[in-house]
Amino acid sequence: MKKIVSFLLFFHFCCCVVQSATPKNYYALAIAAIKANNVPALEANMKHIHHVDSLIYKDSDYSYSLLGYACLYKNMSAVRKLVDAKADISCAFSDEIYIYDALYLAIDSGDLSMVQYFISLGSNVNQPYNEDGLCPLMVSVIDNNVPVAELLLKHGAHANGVGNLGGDHTFYPLMTAIENRNKAMVRLLLKYGASKRVKDESGDTPLSLAYRLKATDIIALLKRGKGK
Fold first, then answer.
1. How far apart are CA 228 and CA 226, in angstroms?
2. pLDDT at position 7
3. What is the reported pLDDT for 56?
4. Residue 205: is its pLDDT beyond 60?
5. Torsion of CA 191, 197, 198, 203, to 10 degrees
6. Phi–psi pair at 46, nearest 5 degrees
7. Same domain, yes or no, for 169 and 94?
8. pTM for the complete prediction?
9. Looking at the domain assignment, is residue 5 inside a domain?
């Protein structure tokens, strides 16, 4: 019996030694706390993290900073806590090719209050994300999010996007809104001066695209709406 007890005590001791020798992954623990909306646990783990802006892989293609994870999981409390800890709002997410800011993630999550928050911190509403002209307004148009698009436009987003920056394709918000058959978005973009004279790679203008799609309500908007 004594041998059994001694063996169990020895086994427990060995387990404790192994456990104590295994370093904690404070980044993983912080991410778990963000996902669980456990701010005290996030704070506790952040005390052991010296590089708050490190990008941590979520899978083989995408990596996020802790602020990026807070945006991804729509955890506004964690967002504020990380911003207070001087997290870089300009580098929150990577797809292995490009780096995206926290505003991009807020827009993509559809969280209007979070978008407003990052704008208030000085995020660039005309930040180009790639050479094709992907920008905050384009992300909101692609997502068919009219309230977010309107918020961006009110804060100075260019209704025609940011243009081509050397890519093979050019993103035009109005053309994408028409492709999505989003009448409300088309109306909004025209209100803020989106050009009706832009052309895509196929030679389509907004009006010719609307005709090709047989989008009669959008055709009517383009014929009478604002914009040049």
1. 7
2. 43
3. 96
4. yes
5. 140
6. -65, -25
7. no
8. 0.87
9. no
